[in-house]
Structures are given as C-alpha cells and as structure tokens.
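Standup notes
- DV: blocked on the single-chain target, sequence here:
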Amino acid sequence: MLLLRKLTNAMLRINRVRSVLSVFMTFWVLKVQRRKIRIYSGDLGYIGEHTIQSNMRIVHEKSDLPEYAEAKFIAGIGTNQGGVKADMLLEPVNAVLAARLRDRKSCEILSIGPRSFGELLNIRSHGYAPENITGVDLFSMFSKIRLGDMHRLPFPDNQFDVVLCGWVLAYSKNRSIAAAEIIRVLKPGGLVSIGVSYTTETNDEQRRKRGYLIGTEDRIVSCEQIRQYFGDDIKEIFFSVEPDPEQNHSQILFTAAVK
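- DV (later): unblocked, structure below
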C-alpha cells in the first residue's frame, strides 16, 4: 500500500496527469451524468462582481462573460485544471512542517477556492493524506469541495493545521473578515499560505483587455497589505515574495503561522 501511494503521488506530481484526470472527472459529471454545477446561494455581499462566473471558466466554458483568448476548452470543458499554482503555496508550508518534524499525512489541510479537483490532487501529490484534504468554493461538482464563502467558512473552530488561500483573496470586498475566518478555522500555530496575482495594468486596462475586472477595485499590491488584514494574529512570517514592478505579471506570496 505504501509503495502504491508513493507511485500515485509521483504520477500526480505531473501537472498534465492531474489536469487530464480533472478534465475527465469534469466531463463525466457534466456530460455523462448530466449533473449541474452546484453554486453557493448564500449572501454574496463581500464577493467581487463576476467572481463565480470568471472562476467557473477554469472548468466550464459556459459563461455570460466576454470570451477570453487564453482560455482553452475541449467539448466545453476547461483544459487547464492541474492546479499547478498551488505548488507556490505548498512548498514553503512543506519546508516549515519538515523543520518542525511534522508528518504531512496527519495534517488537516483546507484549500479555499481550488476551482477544480486538480488542485486537491496536487495537494495529495505533496504527501498529504486524501482523507485530510478539504476544499471549499463558491461552486462545486465534487463532495471533496464543499460549497461555502471564505467570509463564512462552513467549518468549526480550530479544525485545520494548514489553510491555502490561493488567488482568491483579491476577490474579497472585506479581506479582514476573510482573514478572521481563516484564523478561526486554523489550530493555534497553524499555517496560512496566500497567493495573489499582481499586474502593472490599471483596472481600466484590465477591463479593456478582458471585458471585466478580475477581483475588486481595491487591489492587493504587497505582503504588508496581506499581513495587515490579519492584524495582531500573525505569530511568525516564514516566507514572503513581493511583486516585481518590472514585470507586467508576477505573484505575491505570503506564508505565516497564526497565534
């Protein structure tokens, strides 16, 4: 069993393998079983406009939003579902856990906004036990991804050892409440790892290029801005990467322990 798990994880480390598996699972649910994507029906007052439709296009072409040239589909199913960007959040977390002699298989880990099943497969490939991996999103086709809003996470206090918040915080209109929810569901000393895309384009330039604004008007531009959302509840910052102002598109990364 141990050898099989290692071989499975090794295969899942390949982004194309994860993407193909996730695409097949999406095709099976939407085209064969003809099930509809479940969409969160609660209060969306803290969520930026177009958030659900924009992110659903990772898995499904149907949308009222303008076409976007970089999106690729086969039979209406998005082809880029491997969740590769989660590596940027997981690798600093893995280093901290290794330094603390923590076994990843025993860690309860939450992915906020995984979008596709591929991100959960990616988390598994890093050595986390499948039964300890949970996703939460505003839309879902799978039981492992629960419907929920990051401002009202559907989990009890102190449940998770690790929370990944990958490229979703920018969609929030009240990031301090989202941060408070992350703190609430983390165990004391738990790890949060956050990723945010950065662009030198103005909001108006984004609208002209894509037809709508990604995220909210108030954009995240630094790690210090992220830290401030958590107030005095950050215990220790382990990893931070500021955006590159010389690049049109780069990433902001922030990994820390909460008190």
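- Follow-up: The two ends are 37 Å apart (CA to CA).
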